[in-house]
Specification:
Blueprint lengths: L2 H10 L46 E2 H11 L10 H7 L6 H11 L9 H17 L2 E2 L2 H4 L1
Parallel strand pairs: 1-2
């Protein structure tokens, strides 16, 4: 599992505003005809297919991360710092982890560990979260 997958799991797994949908139970079939009457079909033993699931609402990434920062004391600069973002999500933020993330996301800005690369990496993570169902403000992606 790549580092971005761990980031996405932590962000999307914290979505609390949408309750999990209960699986639909098929309605019971009551057969009132005679099983021996050739004009009456017996009920099917397989239930009708369930209605297609409604698309999930996008996860508000900013709200999730702001809430998480508040839970942890609110001292994180996750909006600008990839290191703070990774720490907020309880993920490894060392240079090797950021190199791995840069390779995974195809970020080639500046030297490894430089401010230029860290800013590009932060924006790449936010764009990728948006591509994967997150609602991310434009100022965090651009």
């Amino acid at each position: 599992m790549g580092l971005f997958s761990k980031i996405a799991d932590r962000v999307f797994g914290r979505k609390k505003d949408v309750p999990a949908a209960a699986p639909a139970k098929p309605a019971p079939v009551i057969f009132t005809g005679s099983e021996n009457d050739p004009k009456v079909s017996p009920p099917s033993h397989t239930p009708a297919p369930a209605a297609p699931a409604q698309p999930a609402e996008p996860v508000d990434v900013e709200a999730v991360l702001t809430g998480l920062a508040a839970e942890k004391g609110g001292k994180s600069d996750w909006r600008h710092s990839i290191v703070d973002l990774l720490k907020l999500l309880d993920l490894d933020s060392n240079l090797e982890a950021r190199k791995e993330l840069a390779a995974e996301l195809g970020v080639n800005a500046g030297a490894h560990g430089s401010a230029e690369q860290n800013l590009a990496l932060h924006k790449a993570v936010m764009r990728k979260l948006a591509e994967n169902g997150g609602k991310v403000p434009d100022d965090l992606k651009d």
